[in-house]
Amino acid sequence: MNGNRKDQRLVTSSPTPLKPRNFYLPRLDPVFYRGDAAIHWSLTVFDRKTGWLNESFHHRFRELMLHVAIREGVFCPAYCLMPDHMHLLWIGLRRNTDQRNGMSFLRTHLKPLLSPFRFQPQAHDHVLSEEERKRDAFAKICFYILANPVRAKLITESGRWPFCGAMIPGYPKSHPLDEGFWPLFWKLYYQSRQPDAGERKLPPKIS
Q: What CATH number should be reported for the domain holding residue 88?
């Protein structure tokens, strides 16, 4: 996998364009969120309110993400907190991993930290396909998440947004833009992933 900074900066268009949805977002069958599923989650603050994002919120967010990682058995190779929304990508490690439970836990415990602001009723999710799970495609989605501040003109392509990173238990300083992150990530993923994590019988997706 190519992880040089030049390639990282080039990912400024969405690899998986998001389709418009109704206010209450439809969900796939629950099995799509379990086991070794890889899911890009987006949480938007109601009315796109700003003023809540700071270093203290980021610190508490990381603390809660660590709890989710351990409770539900997920790694987060990339997340990005924006002034009015946030993105994160989780990939499951255990057969009993359920990312819906993880998202419910995260939203519940972020709620008092976000107050008086609040999230929209549901998080948006995109379950990665088999093609999107391949290493290069997977990294491209992560870099797309991390490039949000560049597209919003909050930083330049050479800058680093202070409210982004990764969450891998035991590796608090790991960052997806650091040299050597991706070989380490895949090594730890395959070491931590339980052999039966992918034993899911998936029904057909409904568009």
A: 3.30.70.1290
